[in-house]
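Sequence only, no structure available. Ideas?
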Amino acid sequence: MHITEILFWILTALALFSALMVVSSDNPVHSVLWLILVFMAITGHYILMNAQFLAIVNMIVYAGAIMVLFLFVIMFMNLNKDSEPQKSVWLRLAAVVSGGSLLLILVAALKDNGGYINSMKGEGSIGLIKNLGNTLFTEYVVPFEISSILFLSAMVGAVVLGKKESSTPAA
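Reply:
I predicted one. Tokens follow.
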């Protein structure tokens, strides 16, 4: 076995275990922490596939910003066991059946796709940030600059809308 295959299977086991812990955890804060671990494992998969930009964006946006937002909302709602409604046996059975059906569909779809692990050699330059930067600043420089002007105007608009007007008239 190659080292990338070993890392792939370790990250896969970590992601699956963490995802199961997200669903089965009683404490919502613990579920968010397990979900952060799932995102870290997915980031490791992106690195194995030589998709550095996706790995960095996944780490910053999902594991960072979105999870902080989830944690803030959960803490703001003050969820605990007493305030959560109890799930019926039929609802749990329906969840198990639908999850098993999804697993069956995924296994059937991926049954003949054995080339995924073999494609993770880390060769080539498809996912490199350098190539993304070269493409952005050569072929797509005009849309890139237009989007920067759009973002600048949105920031100025947010400042103008957020600014309080003074109650005393200016002299």
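The chain has two domains: 3-127, 128-161.
Hope that gets you unstuck.
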